[in-house]
Specification:
67 residues, mainly alpha, 12% strand, rod-shaped
């Protein structure tokens, strides 16, 4: 049997009401979405860093500006 731990209490999922089961499904869906968004954010941050590095590489050097 499947169990879920909420606030350090273990519950048999099959013994819970349909409403509670629906809430558990929603909670798990939110948890998964948060993980997906964290992964997406990491990808976007990596891309942003690459763009920033490419920009820095194309800017003139300080010495070139002084001449």
């Amino acid at each position: 049997m499947s169990t879920i731990n909420i606030d350090n209490k273990e519950f048999e999922i099959e013994a819970l009401s349909e409403s509670v089961k629906a809430q558990i499904i929603s909670l798990r869906s939110c948890d998964q979405r948060m993980l997906d968004l964290q992964q997406e954010l990491a990808i976007v941050q990596t891309a942003r860093n690459a763009y920033a590095n490419a920009l820095k590489a194309e800017l003139p050097d300080d010495e070139a500006e002084e001449e």
